[in-house]
Amino acid sequence: MHVNVLRRQLLAAMAALPAALPALALAGAYPDTSIRLVVAFPPGGGTDGAARLVGERLAAEIGQAVVVENRAGAGGVIGAQSVARARPEGYTLLFGTGAELLVNPATRKSAPYDPLRDFVPVAEVGSVAFALVVPAASPLRSLPDLVAAAKARPGSLNYASFGVGSTNHLIGELFLHAAGVAATHVPFQGSQQAMASLLAGDVDFAFDTAAVVLPQIRAGKLRALATPSPRRLAALPDVPTLQELGYAGLAIEGWMGVFAPAGTPAEAVKTLAAALDKVLRVPELQARLDGRGVAVSAADGAQFARKLQAEFTTWQRVARQAKISLD
User: Fold this and answer.
1) Residue 156 region, left (φ>0) first, then alpha (ψ -120 to 50), else beta?
2) How does DSSP classify residue 110?
3) Are 59 and 52 in contact (CB under 8 A)?
4) Helix (H, G, I), strand (E, B) or coil at 165
5) CA pair distance 87, 102, nearest whole angstrom
6) Residue 82: what are its φ and ψ, rounded to 5°?
7) Partners of 226 in the β-ladder
8) What's the whole-number mean pLDDT along residues 71-75?
9) Is the Cβ–Cβ distance between 109 and 95 less than 8 Å?
10) More confident residue, 210 or 240
């Protein structure tokens, strides 16, 4: 009797085995634990805010926590470098921008990483608009006012950026070069700190992201003089572009995207890309990102990689022409 009972139990277990196999396989599927989403700038800035919006949606889509981790310093290099050196298993990602991934390496003779070799572009999130702003109490009422003041007192004006080698640092240098004037660069560790200094009147102007400047403009604390975008911003319809003001060809936008360390398994990248594509098409998320000055593009990894290659070459050329070097 005992043998018959054991036989029946064994047969029942064997019969159930095929049904159990998919569940066993699924248990080891990616992702099976939380994901770190590294932001290379301090909390409170435009990149951090967008990363938290995307991370929240991504977590719901993949069924795992997405923890945003701020690793600021050196114009974004510290955070980006930490991801490039992370174990390529798909559990450490970078919510990156052109600042740390392209501009910084393009303006150095010896970059701390290769943006095209050391990272896998998972998906582009969207493009980022900038605006040239001054404190509301500033006597500078227009871009010609700013240029005239810079010419009258060479080097006396100063401008803030969110780090040496950041996108807005290079935009500032490109503008000064195009205008034929000089101003002192004052770098901060992040956008929030740079904005605090501008609002306090400690610096004269800044190119900062729409996400950061729009609330201050609406509150009457800042005044926008121009935008470096290819076209006028819908949120600032009365503010001219630099091109409209005579700076032909000076049209620059930033971008945000998600990256994995080189060597991350293709299946993990594919899973992440599919999840990001899905969440970035949610109208509510698009609206919230748009409100922060991020126009969602949801470009896939292959499209994003081609854009990075072309833009990296452009930044290298621009840096040489403008004689901008961060070494």
Assistant:
1) alpha
2) S
3) no
4) coil
5) 22
6) -65, -35
7) 132
8) 86
9) no
10) 240
SS3 247: coil
Please state, in angstroms and rounded to a whole number, the distance separating the CA atoms of residues 118 and 83.
9
CA distance 7 to 1: 10
What's the rounded Cα separation, in Å, for the pair 51 and 32? 21
Q: Do 104 and 327 meet the contact criterion of CB atoms below 8 Å apart?
A: no
Cα–Cα distance list, 278 to 54, 57, 272, 284, 292 (Å)? 11, 10, 10, 12, 20
The rounded Cα 235 to chain-centroid distance in angstroms is 20
Task: Please state, in angstroms and rounded to a whole number, the distance separating the CA atoms of residues 233 and 204.
Answer: 23
Average of pLDDT values for 107-130?
92
Cα 217 from Cα 258, distance rounded (Å): 29
Find where tokens 């990102």 sit: 289
Give the per-residue pLDDT at 14: 40
Instruction: Give Cα 14 to chain centroid, integer Å.
Output: 52
Phi, psi of 185 (to 5 degrees): -85, 130
Nearest to 174 by CA among 22, 1, 323, 14: 323
Residue 169 · residue 75 · CB < 8 Å: yes
Q: Dig out the tokens for 43 from the structure.
A: 């909390």
Tokens linked to 205:
């102007």
> pTM score, two decimals?
0.78
Band of the pLDDT at 160, cuts 50, 70, 90? very high
The DSSP secondary structure of 126-149, one letter per residue, reads EEE-EEEEEETT-S--SHHHHHHH
Answer whether 107's CB lies under 8 Å from 324's CB.
yes
